[in-house]
Design brief:
Elements lengths: L1 H21 L27 H67 L2 H101 L4 E4 L4 E3 L5 E9 L5 E7 L5 E4 L2 E4 L4 E8 L7 E9 L7 H7 L7 E7 L1
Parallel strand pairs: 2-9
Antiparallel strand pairs: 1-3, 3-7, 4-6, 4-8, 5-7, 8-9
Helix pairs in contact: 1-2
Keywords: Cytoplasm, Cytoskeleton
InterPro entries: Ig-like_fold, MSP_dom, PapD-like_sf
Protein name: Major sperm protein
Length: 332
């Protein structure tokens, strides 16, 4: 509508100028001096272009639209700033109200005093009081600013303390995890130790069983006797032979086998043999030159079974029925 009105006004002014000032030339126009024609009036100014008038309102409308778009953003920013400032202002206002109340009470007291004083002195006192009030207000404002700064510092310190506590909690959790891992490791070590102890106990039990077996073997009565009874003595610095006699004390034929603890130093002949009931067998024991040390000779005996020609196989297949006889050997 504004554009149409401006265009209409422009057209009407142009027509008015053309009709009123320019018009058609008069028929009997007076000539000037010397028979010259009278000067023509100056041409009217050109009408303002409609485009310039059109552009101005368009630009205004664009600027208004852009301002409308920017208005909500600005309002939001203002609101955020106002919220932050409101919190601080509320605290300041509360403090100011408290101080105002205190000031009012002081003013009442001062007024009561001033009413008693003279009129001339009142003016001077009022000026002084006002100056004092101004000074107090300035000091109070400074104190409030300092308090606000202190409050900000306290807030920062509290935040730092909270962060430190969080870090401490994290470290405590890490330490707890480490302790749990250590406990688990200790449990595993204990389990391994228990397993080792169980294995040791099993070995001990096996050894005990073997010892019991040997004891049972020793509990068996031997089927032979040895003469001379006791230990055999040899001289260490020379080769020497000695003889022992085995007697069958059983009512059946027996077989024997002789073992030594050192086969290189001590030689036995025969190693295997059989003895009829009540009869004897001689065995020769030879000692070679060697350093003196203790040794032993073991006689394994059992009721005869198998073959005379291969007594070693008979001892392997059959368990001995007689107890072993041990003869100690010493060399000096």
């Amino acid at each position: 509508m504004a554009i149409g009105i401006s265009v209409f006004i422009g057209i009407s002014t142009a027509i008015w100028l053309i009709v009123g000032c320019g018009g058609k030339k008069k028929k009997n126009a007076p000539k000037g001096a010397g028979g010259a024609k009278a000067p023509t009036p100056p041409a009217p100014p050109a009408a303002p272009k409609a485009d310039s008038k059109m552009k101005a309102p368009e630009e205004k409308e664009k600027s208004k639209k852009s301002e409308k778009k920017d208005e909500p953003k600005k309002e939001e920013e203002k609101k955020e700033k106002s919220k932050k400032s409101e919190k601080k202002d509320d605290k300041k206002e509360e403090k100011k109200e408290e101080k105002k109340e205190e000031k009012k009470e002081e003013e009442k007291k001062e007024k009561s005093k001033k009413s008693e004083m003279k009129d001339d002195d009142k003016k001077d006192d009022d000026k002084k009081d006002e100056e004092k009030k101004d000074d107090k207000e300035k000091k109070d404002e400074k104190k409030e600013d300092e308090k606000d700064k202190d409050d900000d510092k306290d807030d920062k310190k509290e935040e730092e303390k909270k962060e430190e506590k969080k870090e401490e909690k994290k470290e405590e959790k890490k330490e707890e995890k480490k302790e749990e891992e250590k406990k688990e490791e200790k449990k595993e070590e204990k389990k391994e130790e228990e397993k080792k102890e169980e294995k040791k106990e099993e070995k001990k039990e096996e050894e005990k069983k073997e010892e019991k077996k040997e004891e049972k073997k020793d509990e068996l009565k031997p089927h032979v006797t040895v003469e001379p009874a006791g230990d055999l003595g040899f001289q260490a610095d020379q080769q020497e032979q000695k003889k022992i006699t085995l007697t069958n004390t059983h009512d059946k034929k027996i077989m024997f086998k002789i073992k030594t603890s050192d086969n290189l130093v001590y030689l036995v002949n025969p190693v295997f043999g059989t003895i009829e009931p009540g009869k004897t067998a001689e065995i020769t024991v030879t000692r070679n030159k060697a350093p003196g040390k203790e040794a032993k000779l073991v006689i394994v005996n059992s009721v005869f079974s198998g073959d005379d020609k291969d007594l070693a196989k008979s001892f392997k297949t059959a368990k001995p029925t007689g107890g072993q006889v041990t003869v100690k050997i010493a060399a000096k």
